[in-house]
């Protein structure tokens, strides 16, 4: 795809979304993004949700520009790379790693000296209500690591997660597939605040995720501002940090290693609720759950109760969307119950796993649930849950072929601009 | 009103509703109703909300019944007095106090030996969503204390509150007017778990209360069951009990003594939020606030922010209704803002204080609030807040004239039955 006969240095990677089951809420260092507690997440499949990034070194032979500089396009729109901002910091950290390698290996091309053109796209709409910063920053770091060939020179995924963390805290967890812990660390410089793999996706591959996209009329408190307000004002947060999360990290890690869904579900739901509890304990209080979120919780609670075991585990981030973790064997049942109470149009319920479940659920299957209280919540109108996204646990960042999948054209500009 | 020439022993009292500003949530002894933390409430005026109770000793001369026994009518319907139940326990405790006095004063009539007929009515509909058990049990105890002439024989209001507590925990606080603490106590027998007056209503008389009655489609978790689930499962509750409430009791008592509304409001709102936070931290979680409750919180938060001081303090019990505490000087402003966003019909907004505020608020006054973000919440449809009740801090139980205000007729049966 190079316009000249010279080598084009570029790389293209995708990175996944992750959804925490032990929540990150609170920074002990807002500049370095060092958290007040460890957290743990499940990485979701890039087959369905991903950020895609291409980065290219702009050398004299690959650019006609007279004053090349770092440039960034997000979903086709150019964004400023503010000096001292998070993206600039990530670029500087990655260049610095490359520079050290170049200094030790004089035969390597001096890629760190060239400006970068970076284009990135998410395949999920903002309206899906999924935080795109984690997958986006993770894709940026994965792509630059590939461009600079860092892995071959001894830079680990955890090292990279340390840099991704500085771009967007939870991005560090998207540097791994499967089940990922972000260890809070103790050092002031954040060197030990990194992501580590608890278990790969292949260890427990049948964990599915149903994302129930719930619209909210009112925009919630941005998480960056919200979490620091909680740190400043919630007495309960301190108890959570010191006395609840450490034990929970141990228990849920064990549950993952033992594929113990009951325990995994119990910890996941309790942690989500406690996260929202400390938000409510904030001055002034922060609300992310609305009446639809609450109805989903009550529905899952009743479904689990009637089943005598956990068939679904809900979790909520800084917004009203529910993410339900479900084992493969229970996906049909859970989908039927959810779609019965929150009916969809076919468009809002694509069925990538070909479950065959109808967008309005199956009354028969729900009725067959002995002891299930059908009146636990009212049946909602279509649109209360705007969309259902069905995905599952997945792997970490992937490398693609820039020639076929890359986002930059021969001129080093986004292909999308040419359209 | 006696049917014979013999003395009729009867008494009629009213008792008030109280709304906690430091919440009671959790029992350390469910039988004696001993709480896990102290609480504090404001007693509301009986001019607007009250329970009215008449109790009469059924002597041979006042009854034609061949087998007189304790009987109880609530709002005109006879209720069983279950043996071993809370009402029976309260009757036994009150009789026991009277018996001691009779034993020491042989000239006194042996009232403790007679069965009782008791009729009680609330002047607020169940639909108002106000807990009637506090005022109801308090009225029962106040009426029996008057009937048995206990006060003249050295029984204090705090002694009586100890008995009311065993009928319904928060009833103990309705034995006093004004600002009332329920001290949790330490003794296993509950002797020191009593209500005490922090300040009488006359100390800070201009505190008004606006009760915004919010309907909820779904019946919430009953508080008796809910609080014990929180005790059993919430890690945050223990922190609240040990490290938050004791200091808050001190601070809010001081705020009341100093009539410091800013501090009073801060503690009131924080405690309400923390109470609902520990409900959310319960397994499975307990929700009492709904989207309308949440909107009221956001409206009050914005109103206080724009005003640069606390003009209103919200608090929520085990349901979606908001109670706003407001100083007299701010009542018009707060009503205007509330009614602007939650318009009422005239029927749902009676105006006992003749404020002259329209049921739909005054756009002018709201617009005159510099810096107030009018878009903080959407303007709701009539009915989102079903009714607004306007009242204020008030005194403790009152004694009425049984002849004119009593609920029992000459036969000792509820007058309402004769209608």
Automatic annotation (TrEMBL), chains A, B:
Mvd1 C-terminal domain location = 209-399
| Pfam families cross-referenced by the UniProt entry | MDD_C (PF18376), MVD-like_N (PF22700)
Under Enzyme Commission nomenclature, its number is 4.1.1.33
Instruction: Identify the InterPro entries for this entry.
Output: GHMP_kinase_C_sf, Mev_decarb, Mev_diP_decarb, MVD-like_N, Mvd1_C, Ribosomal_Su5_D2-typ_SF, Ribsml_uS5_D2-typ_fold_subgr
Q: Gene3D superfamilies annotated for this entry? A: 3.30.230.10, GHMP kinase, C-terminal domain
GO BP annotations of the record are: isopentenyl diphosphate biosynthetic process, mevalonate pathway; sterol biosynthetic process
Q: Boundaries of each Diphosphomevalonate decarboxylase-like N-terminal domain copy? A: 15-195
Pathway note: Isoprenoid biosynthesis; isopentenyl diphosphate biosynthesis via mevalonate pathway; isopentenyl diphosphate from (R)-mevalonate: step 3/3
Answer yes or no on keyword Lipid metabolism.
Answer: yes
Tell me, what is one Gene Ontology molecular-function annotation carried by this entry? diphosphomevalonate decarboxylase activity
Cellular-component GO terms for this entry: cytosol
Keywords from the UniProt entry: ATP-binding, Lipid biosynthesis, Lipid metabolism, Lyase, Nucleotide-binding, Steroid biosynthesis, Steroid metabolism, Sterol biosynthesis, Sterol metabolism
Q: Which family does it belong to?
A: Belongs to the diphosphomevalonate decarboxylase family.
Which PANTHER family does the entry link to? DIPHOSPHOMEVALONATE DECARBOXYLASE
For this entry, the protein name equals: Diphosphomevalonate decarboxylase
